[in-house]
Amino acid sequence: MRIILFGAPGVGKGTQAKILSSKFGIPHISTGDILRKAVKEKTPLGIKAQQAMNKGALVSDDIMIGIIKDTLEQDDCKKGFILDGFPRTHVQAHAIDDMLAEMNINNVCVITLQANEKEIVTRLSNRRACKVCKNIFSLTEIEKLTKCPVCNSENSFYLRTDDKEEVIKHRMEVFKEETQPVLKHYESKKKVIYIDALGSVDEVTKRIMLALKERDSNKFSTSA
Ligand code: AMP
Description:
The protein is an alpha/beta fold. It has a single domain (2-128, 167-218), classed as Rossmann fold (3-Layer(aba) Sandwich), CATH 3.40.50. Helix content is 52%, strand content 15%. The protein has helices at 13-24, 31-40, 44-55, 61-72, 90-102, 117-125, 139-142, 165-179, 182-187, 201-223; strands at residues 2-6, 28-30, 81-84, 108-114, 127-130, 136-138, 157-158, 192-196. The chain has a five-stranded parallel β-sheet with strand order 2-3-1-4-8. A three-stranded antiparallel β-sheet has the order 6-5-7.
């Protein structure tokens, strides 16, 4: 299974990617997580990426394409992967097409999570991350907790710099201008599955699983 999870920031890509990764036993590749780790560790990549990330802007295509190339070449990606946060520009989309073609991979499925902008902005400003395990929670899920429900760390919740109101606005603009048009690229290849991302995490997962099952049975009936 090879999935590109597409959608606006805050629509729930990371949450669904983690669930699908454990259901299918394939790695979850989050470019945002890779960059945040590099920023935390103050690596040369982190130092280059931090300024753009803090502003809600995109990190350069060259850097991002390099990261994805290195990651996809690793052994654990051979049996499949879930890409979360890549591609975000036309240049990145063409680059990954080329990489996959070189690897003889032609069964990538693009799942796009959809929600209206108002809902997304509310979700982003109401979410908190655990600084230890990096899982994301809504304020309502953790309001009475002092420990992270996933890794048990004490007082580890924080508001990501890029989830602050002024940065959210910019991230949404960047999404509309640079990332949303990338969907057209995949639509022209008829590879897109649309999923309503409103509702509970569980409901959204069920919709994705159903859509994947339908896609597989269609594939079977057309090839039979
Ligand atoms: P995310 O957690 O996916 O929302 O990513 C957080 C931030 O990392 C983004 O706002 C960008 O600054 C940067 N980033 C992540 N993925 C990419 C990408 N594919 N291209 C450019 N910048 C990215």
